[in-house]
Design goal:
- The termini are far apart.
- The chain has a domain of 61 residues.
- With 94 residues, it is mainly α.
- 67% of the residues lie in helices and 0% in strands.
Length: 94
């Protein structure tokens, strides 16, 4: 009878040991890649929120601008005198 019940240490085989080391490196790289993906998704969510806030602010400013433009329009019967730039500027000496 042969003694086959003895446990075999696979890491004593140089090929298995090298493959095990490579596998450990790949696991670390994969974990790092997943962490980067999670960071990207988090940043993407933050940017979407910021873009939404900026869009709301832009719409508010557009509304304010429209109100200002409306307030600057002449009222019924109001006459706005023409702008005379030459009268406002002093004459330049020659």
């Amino acid at each position: 009878m042969s003694d086959d019940s003895k446990p075999v240490n696979l890491l004593s085989n140089p090929i298995v040991k090298k493959m095990s080391e490579r596998m450990a490196v790949k696991e670390v790289e994969l974990a790092s890649a997943y962490a980067l993906i999670d960071s990207y998704k988090s940043l993407e969510a933050q940017h979407k929120e910021t873009i939404g806030q900026l869009g709301a602010e832009l719409e508010q400013h557009r509304q304010e601008l429209a109100e200002l433009r409306a307030s600057l329009q002449p009222k019924d019967g109001e006459v706005i005198p023409p702008k005379n730039d030459k009268a406002a500027k002093p004459a330049r000496p020659n």
